[in-house]
Amino acid sequence: MEAIKTITTEELEQKIENGEELLLIDVREDEEVAQGMIQGAKHIPMGQIPLHLDKLDKDKEYIFICRSGRRSENVCYYLQEQGYKVRNMVGGMLEWSGEVIV
Predict the structure, then answer these.
(1) pLDDT number for residue 56
(2) DSSP-derived pairing of the beta strands 42-43 and 61-65
């Protein structure tokens, strides 16, 4: 199994500040995202990822986010096996110090 690429919360915040075009997917549950999400992130709960594969482009890289980085890592392994380009935000929202939208 190939290692999952990662991005730190600091690296992601810098990319956002630089205005980079990013594809962010938050895989937390509804009640978790109600507390705040990173601006521009799309919400697809972990259990619904298999139902949304047709909406993901295998030529683009997606950054996955959850509370601590474990669920998003599992999603990354699953999608990487399906041929998608993925990156996991390590530390998750617990380590995110940037702005959030509610």
Answers:
(1) 97
(2) unpaired
Question: Could you tell me which residues are beta bridge partners of residue 87?
Answer: 5, 63
8 A C-beta contact, residue 78 and residue 47: no
Q: For residues 24 and 38, give the distance between their C-alpha atoms in angstroms, rounded to a whole number.
A: 8
Instruction: Please tell me the distance from the alpha carbon of residue 58 to that of residue 71, in angstroms, as a whole number.
Output: 20
**Exposure of 23 in the CB half-sphere (CA atoms within 13 A):** 13
What digits encode the pLDDT tens for the residues 34-54?
999 999 999 999 999 999 999
- The pLDDT of residue 2 is 85
β-pair type (85-89, 61-65):
parallel
The residues carrying an active-site annotation are: 66
